[in-house]
Write a structure and sequence with these properties.
By secondary structure, this protein is an alpha/beta fold. Helices cover 43% and strands 14% of the residues. The protein is built from 14 helices and 12 strands.
């Protein structure tokens, strides 16, 4: 279990001391996080890193999870997508079942705390079970343009909370209760981000079938239509006319027609070009992601992600310049144009920026160093902890 003192070597000066001073003011209070599960990325990944550190600092912090049958999880996923603006069929009986499953969880869970933070959609209706303390809904999604009928249903639960925490100012739902902005973070000492010896990187890449005999253009993300894989391959081909490079597309594939379509498209591309390497990763492939990003010459981030994804921050922490989609709000926060990477809007734009870096190799370590420092100051877990501790003190007054 990691302790707060271990972060002094990687965090900005004073960050650990600030967290310890804030934690001292919270002694004697109990805080509780509630999520829909303990596995995967997103809220669960953040909580797995943060809770042991909070405990080490003397802040009593619990973590409960809600659960249900497959229908419960399917409805939660559909409702999440609808709150981000997608068209989904939400049957009244399915929504009623989702609420009832959370009611059952509410009877079983220990929800007594001075402050309860409920993460995302799966456990959101659990607010019906509140008895004492302050309750905050932590929204990791972009709920600024929800599907109308989904929002009419969901709004009654959100308005029972004392506050909402969002990842970006524009992500918040239209409610009258107070809203606070806390951007997510990465854990620099986790398996996904800690330093790796060259021998370990070489072993992992060999196991994945990725050779390092030429510059690597790497994207880690969902192998799905939302990642614009066709556009990414076309950008690579424009670069390939001038530079002998290899494109590595690594990530997980989603189920259903989207998976089949993405797989068919990639198989066609790789059959014609052995320098396009597709690596399917299991959900918890942290060491593999770490090694791929550290081996990359340039990291690409073209996926239209839901919420505030941190793949670019992870790559910048490893000293890599990142080329990302300019239409993604989270990437506009992470990437400082011409300093830590580039924001692009087209296939040609991405190819131009890749060629610019390959033609000027001295820019690669310079941008990489700037990116690492940017993440160190703004997107490490120490900053995240300070934000949460300050929010706890504010709401507990």
């Amino acid at each position: 279990m990691l302790k707060i003192e271990e972060y002094r070597e990687v965090a900005p000066p004073g960050a650990v001391d600030m967290a310890l001073r804030l934690a001292e003011r919270l002694r004697g209070r109990r805080f509780l996080h509630v999520s829909g599960g303990r596995l995967g990325t997103g809220p669960a990944e953040i909580l797995r890193a943060a809770l042991p550190i909070l405990t080490d600092m003397g802040v009593e912090t619990g973590w409960e999870i809600t659960g249900g049958d497959p229908s419960y999880y399917a409805t939660a996923r559909a409702l999440s997508a609808a709150l981000e603006g997608a068209e989904r069929t939400l049957r009244p009986e399915a929504l009623a079942h989702w609420v009832e499953m959370n009611r059952l969880s509410g009877r079983k869970l220990t929800l007594d705390a001075d402050l309860v933070l409920v993460h995302d959609v799966p456990p959101a209706s659990l607010v019906e079970a509140r008895k004492a303390g302050r309750w905050v809904w932590r929204c990791h999604l972009d709920c600024s343009r929800p599907e109308h009928r989904a929002w009419l249903f969901f709004r009654e639960f959100v308005e029972r909370y004392d506050a909402v925490v969002v990842s970006l100012p524009g992500y918040g739902p239209g409610v009258a209760i107070p809203q606070y902005v806390i951007q997510p973070s990465i854990d620099p000492l986790s398996d996904k981000n800690r330093g790796l010896p060259a021998s370990e990187i070489a072993t992992i890449l060999h196991g994945l079938g990725v050779a390092r005999d030429k510059p690597l253009l790497v994207q880690v993300g969902a192998l799905a239509r939302s990642a614009d894989l066709t556009g990414l391959v076309n950008s690579y081909r424009l670069v390939k006319r001038h530079h002998d490079v290899r494109l590595v597309l690594a990530g997980t594939t989603r189920g259903g027609p989207d998976r089949a379509e993405a797989r068919a498209s990639l198989e066609e591309a790789t059959a014609r070009d052995p320098d396009i390497v597709v690596v399917e990763l299991p959900p918890e492939a942290h060491r593999q992601i770490n090694a791929l990003q550290r081996a990359a010459t340039i990291v690409l981030q073209t996926e239209e992600s839901e919420g505030f994804e941190l793949g670019a921050a992870e790559a910048m922490w490893k000293g890599k310049p990142v080329i990302g989609r300019a239409t993604t709000e989270a990437l506009r926060q992470l990437i400082i144009p011409d300093v830590t990477g580039y924001l692009v809007r087209s296939v040609e734009g991405a190819a131009f920026r890749m060629r610019q870096l390959l033609n000027n190799p001295e820019l690669i370590p310079r941008m990489g160093a700037a990116g690492r420092e940017h993440v160190r100051r703004a997107f490490l877990i120490t900053r995240h902890l300070v934000d949460y501790l300050a929010l706890m003190i504010h709401l507990g007054r």
